[in-house]
Amino acid sequence: ADQTANWSREEALTLVENWLETFSGKIDAIVAHNDEMALGAIQALEGAGLAGKVLVCGQDCDLLACQRIVQGTQVSTVAKAGSEYPQLFTEACIQYYLGEKTAADFGTDVNSDGQTIPFMSYPGVVVTKDNIDETVIAAGLFTHEEVYGE
Q1: Rounded to 5°, angle at Cα 130 from 3 and 143
Q2: Phi/psi at 13 (5° precision)
Q3: Is the pTM of this model over 0.85?
Q4: 81 class by beta-carbon count within 10 Å (0-12 exposed, 13-18 middle, 19+ buried)
Q5: Is the CB of residue 141 less than 8 Å from the CB of residue 79?
Q6: 43, 17 Cβ separation under 8 angstroms
Q7: How far is 143 from 25, CA to CA, in rounded Å?
């Protein structure tokens, strides 16, 4: 359970290269904090000939992650975007402005600099090869052509 600073792809790549050396390439899965870090992990796995053989999960549902999912080098991502999120955010802002919500209604989190910051969580959707058409493409996040390259 090693950490990387600032969601860095380069640090994730180095970390996974070190793991591959330490564990003689015997890694079953990597859960990355975001898709950029998942990309770094996959780049390290590609260098070792293990891309697509080690399960890699990310989150944020960026386009490259969706492409990696259909190609088979990343097993999943988490979509946290779509038309409902701006609506939920806007409703929360209005409720806060009207006094219907207070700071106590929102959680806090600690960022990578150790600062406590306000935090509002929205439910995500796990995106896999089996549901990418129904989730990402149907929601209009990316087109079929963008994801599949066709």
Answers
A1: 90
A2: -60, -50
A3: no
A4: middle
A5: yes
A6: no
A7: 36
Contact assessment for residue 57 and residue 123, using Cβ atoms and an 8 Å cutoff: no
CA–CA gap between residue 46 and residue 109 (Å, rounded): 34
- Indicate if the alpha-carbon torsion angle 53, 61, 101, 109 is positive or negative: positive
**What distance in Å separates the CA atoms of residue 131 and residue 121, rounded to the nearest whole number?**
23
CA neighbor of 68 nearest in space, from 46, 97, 47: 46
Helix, strand or coil for residue 79? Answer: strand
pLDDT in tens, 94-146: 998 999 998 888 888 888 889 988 787 777 899 999 999 999 999 888 999 99
Which residues have C-beta within 8 Å of that of residue 105, sequence separation ≥ 6? 96
Compute, in degrees rounded to 10, the torsion defined by CA atoms 84, 90, 92, 95. -140
d(CA 83, CA 105): 23
pLDDT at position 2? 64
Alpha-carbon span 45 to 52, nearest angstrom: 8
Alpha-helical runs (H) found in 32-104: 35-47, 63-71, 84-97
CA gap 30, 12 in Å, rounded = 10
The first and second tokens of residue 70, run together, are 């259909």
